[in-house]
Amino acid sequence: MTEAFVGASLLPLAIVVPLVWAVLALVRPRRRPTFLVLPGLVSWVTICAGLWWYTSRLGVLTHVLGAWPEPLGIALRADGLGSTMALLTSVIGSACALYRLWTPIDADASEAQRWFWPLFFMLGAALNAVWLAADLFNMYVGLELLGLSAVGLVAISGRANALAAALRYLFAALLGSLAYLLGVALLYAAYGSLALSSLAALAAPDTITYVALALITAGLCLKTALFPLHAWLPPAHGVSLTPVSALLSALVVKASFVMLLRIMVGVGVTIISPSLAQGLGALGAGAIVWGGWQALRHAELKMLVAHSTVAQLGYLFVGMALLLSGSAPELAWDGLMLQLVAHALAKSAMFLASGTLIAAVGSSRVTDLSGVSRHMPLALFAFGLSGVSLMGLPPSGGFSAKWLLLQSALASGQWHWAVALIGGGALTAGYVFRVLSASFKQGTGDKFDRTPLGWDLVSLLLAAGAIVVGVVATGPLAVLRIGAPVAGVTP
Amino acid sequence: MNRARAYASVALSVGMAVMLGSAVLTREFPPFDLAVDLAEGIPRSGVAHPITAVLLQFRSYDTLLEIAVLLVAVVVALALRDPTPADESSPESVILDSVINTPVLTSLTMTLLPLMTMTAVYLLWAGAFQPGGAFQAGAVLAALGVLWRVSGRRTGPFAANRWSHVALLAGFAGFLAAATTTLLFGRPLLAWPSSYAGVIIVAIETVLTVSIGISLLGLFASAPAPGDERV
Amino acid sequence: MSAELWYALVGVVLVAAAFGAFMAHTHLLRRLLAFNIMGTGCFLILVGLAQHKRAPDPIPQALVLTGIVVAVASTALALILFRRWFAATGRTTLPEEDDV
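^ inputs. structure came back:
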């Protein structure tokens, strides 16, 4: 059994193992199946860590499903980006799962929440399926599985406005997937293949390819909540259970972005004009401003964090613009990758910490947080630490990401992005300090519910991860460059 | 609906038509022709019909994920059906006021029961060499189930007993188990050995038929009817 | 014009018309129906255009079968959510974002 064989076998396991646990969780759905979930989490993290390890040592790994080679069959592909996101998914997923396991069983919670675990594992499997996909239609089915699992997780939270948020999310998700499928239909008719690698080699700048790319871009931008198509995101992320919000903001919205990135860089890079990339970047800058502004104004804590997600997603599109139309794509790629990783860790930490604060205070309003600094120092520290990364202060992952993007912007002479990047940092500082200053105010009452210590540990660990990934960035960045489909980027 | 919205929608519609129409009409001959590879692969695939071969051999991974999608939809449907603690009155007895209790429908359902079951079995079996297969057969079974419930035969709350729960999971679980077994034998995932491929595919399709039928029936049975106050 | 190209063009008309309807209506059931018609149009384009001027190709046909299953699951989920929403609030449209 060669190393390559073992490495390639881990690829399907990364998807099959969460699916198996989803089935096991469905046999008897319960609120807190600790003995079932823990082995699932351990095996999931181990497999993804192994996959990441083998990718870093052996390069791009491929697994040909059914032993039918592409383009007739489907292959799974683990490059640096895919295996890193799979590892990140397992780590953040496990953190959110532990948070959920440690949630005290609430007598007022709806019975629907006992179906959390099957949907959770299906979500994990779907995420891995998207990170490791190399076939356009396969990505579509994985994206649909992801969307339906996510909508389900939003809907079971039992709150009054959960149904409306889930409905809005579902309609946006369906419209986005349909636009994507339409683009894939046109691409198959034009090229006769669904494998991304063969399409990348054959792409020609004719009408049908332009239309297909336009549809795919529109659909995936809707699913990634790019401004101005973002209206579905804040309600969905703000109203869900805390671990669900963390997963949605940290990972689920990134899936459609990574798909878009792969397709743009693979198929579109020789075809699309720089002005389209700049247009997407402009919308990203709009997201940074709009999301930040809304976060400054919103009264509820979770909605503030959700609007922060809208803003931070804008950075991804600025990075994509620099990647596709700038003269320093290597820096842009590094910055983009680091932003994906750092934001996932920081945002999940921020949501988990916010959930802890809300549970302690008993209210979800920012102004009701007064006095919490003396009683919940750990949760507040986790919130602040994740805020450091989101603001882009050194020495965090967010800082390194934005610094790389800034360098890429200046090297390309595209000063306008520098303004957006720095302005975004200022806005982020605004709403983070808004929460912190509300917490440090003198409280009127001292009625704080006790929250599990495990909650604080988990959010602290994730926030610390966001900081550490900025300090020791060179190792992960080298792995993230493996198999990068950008000219001039060497692993 | 106000005027501005109507005009904007028409404009979007026309724009979409122009964009898609120009794409469709200007498509040139594609460079790849997978039908050739496919024709070469069919003898090794264990099924005679090319579409079944694509669904359960060449692109079986898509089918696996698609069944997972259907399962997720059913799970969410079941989850939303669970009562909130506020109303512990009757456990899941969803009252279908769309019950049509007429002698015509009742006797028709009894007549159709064996006929539709036979049709489903035929569709499943025929999928090996002509259009048919698990999903079509499952849809017929689900339709039978819908008729059964609408005609007033109260079968009780959906998926309450152990057997229907097992049947719901059996399709996806069986497919996943077969896929995992190929990994244990050192082959790529979902790579059926050529000598057994035909048998494996028929077995998977059979369990899938039952599961798909129960899943689709469950999706129907989980939507609350108007007049159902227990929400 | 071959039959397949005709299917694809009919699919184009369906997608365009249904897209306009999706944008125009706010009633959730109408939007869902529009989405379904768009899906059907998309499948017609997939099957028609891929086989236009080519031998019959089972791959797009199989893709459409998968797509139909996914569409059925999504539509059913949307219907269940909508029925719950209607039963809970008596409304057939979503609230504005500020109400959430």
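Residues 158 and 218 of chain B are 7 Å apart (CA to CA). The longest helix of chain B spans residues 197-221.
thumbs up if we can close this ticket
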